[in-house]
Amino acid sequence: MKKVIALLLVLSQMAFLCACGGGGEENDADTEGKVVIDILWQEEDTYRFWEWPIEQFNAAHPDVEINLETNAEAYSTIRNLLNIGEAPDIFYSWISDVDYYGFAEEGLLYPVDDLLDQQNYEGTAKLSETIFQAGLELGELDGSHYFLPLTKLAAAGFYDNALFTEKNWTMADNWEDFTALCQQISEDGVTPLVYAGAYPFMTADALLMPMLYNIDPAAYEAINNNESGAWTSDAVKEVVGRFADMVAEGYVNPGSLSMDHIQSQIDFISHNDAFVSSGSWLESEMGDQWPAEFELTPFFAPAESAGGATSTTAVVECMILPKQEDDSKLEYIKELLQLFYSQENAKYVSEQTGYLMALEEIDAEVLANLPASVQTIWNTIEADGVTVISAPYKVKYKEVLGELNNSINALVQGEVDVDGFCQRMDTAAQGVN
User: Fold this and answer.
1) Which letter does DSSP use for residue 53 in this model?
2) Is the pTM above the cut of 0.90?
3) Predicted confidence (pLDDT) per residue in 30-81, tens digit
């Protein structure tokens, strides 16, 4: 049986590679005399980001054909396509599943600095100033940029304000008051926090890493740079200690260990837990599962003092431009990407999909098309000066991310203490070096 499955997978990939590498005589006839720009996209709703730009581009360039293909196996085929010189001109898949940094280090990608240096579609600023800054930071390598962000997402915790009103709970904005609130919630028979044990990094994004940044931004940057001893700093131990204290007090649902993100969110919706770690996608992701009386309300990591500054993590997916045998299509691609990162496209995308594109400035008309909780997140970030931090360590050092997931769960299971957590992370980080 295993041999049959393996053979089917091989045949499937061969068929996919053939489709990308050439379309036969009929396809050649259709594109004869035309420049063809190939876009390979992971199969998901974000392919619709291209609808408006392609329509506008086609009207201006009838001699250029844009071939947009979505494929559920895109993430697993790009390496083979790069190896045989058949990579598309533009590629997107989940950054957690594809080694974008490795591709850049091997010289397989175009740097996008020239693109970023040109004016945006509106002619009001450079693209480097137009595109979501925390997203651009993710794609920096040796002084150049290699990735272009797609969506503008932010990690956050969430609670039901209707439940808080019913229970007479008041949301806290600093760590001391937050722990007191957790005690009150627990005494009222509700577990304060549930998280996705299948994806513990979501709790790191929403709570732990922003708290680390709040305490010591340099300690957070040391992790992003994989510096020696970064995971054993006093600031890291303080944050891990806080989470360990929450576990010891019963403030973290131990059932989280067996839950994925959907299961943990259903548990939260059922009021078994007061808080869930997630992000700006949560309201849309759970669709029609929200009770009519539920008042989904986001919050950010507790600050160090009442009214103090806080931060949150940008959650970013990116596209890349694989290098081709010649650079003849680059000018067309630059023009296409100007359209992609336009305010007109951002409006179209928000209206048609409910997504927020990766632009630094959010137009009020665009924001109004988004779910209420998403509007609250970005309005709060703007009004309260919440710092949006980038997390390149998650994609640069996948072994470190894997150990972070394991260590968070080990802390909840009682398998490690604070020092053990930090030592495990330090060992994983040194292994990367």
Assistant:
1) H
2) no
3) 556 789 999 999 999 999 999 999 999 999 999 999 999 999 999 999 999 9
Task: Report DSSP letters for 301-341, one per residue.
Answer: --BSSTT---EEEEE--EEE-B--SS-TTHHHHHHHHHHHT
Q: Which of 163, 268, 248 minimizes the C-alpha distance to 206? A: 268
Residue 343's identity, in one-letter code, is Q
- For residue 178, pLDDT over 70 is answered with yes
In this structure, what token pair is assigned to residue 46?
């974000």
* Topology agreement, domain 9-151+318-361 and domain 153-315+390-432: yes
**Predicted local distance difference test score (pLDDT) of residue 432:** 87
Q: Tens digits of per-residue pLDDT, 263-285?
A: 999 999 999 999 999 999 999 99
Q: Which two tokens stand for residue 64?
A: 């250029």
Q: Which of 190, 194, 201 is nearest to 262 (CA)?
A: 194
**Cα gap 33→281, rounded to integer Å:** 43
**3-class DSSP state of 3:** helix
Q: How far is CA 389 from the centre of its chain?
A: 12
Please report, for the chain, the start and end positions of each structural domain, with discontinuous segments joined by +: 9-151+318-361, 153-315+390-432
The C-alpha angle 52, 57, 60, rounded to 5 degrees, equals: 135
Q: Which CATH architecture has domain 153-315+390-432?
A: 3-Layer(aba) Sandwich (3.40)
| Rounded Cα–Cα distance for residues 121 and 314 (Å) | 25
Please give the Cα distance from 345 to 338 (Å, whole number): 10
What mean pLDDT is reported for the chain?
A: 92
Q: Is the dihedral of CA 114, 116, 120, 121 positive or negative?
A: positive
Between CA 253 and CA 194 the distance in angstroms is 5
Which residue has 């500054």 as its token pair?
A: 309
Question: What class is the 9-151+318-361 domain?
Answer: alpha beta
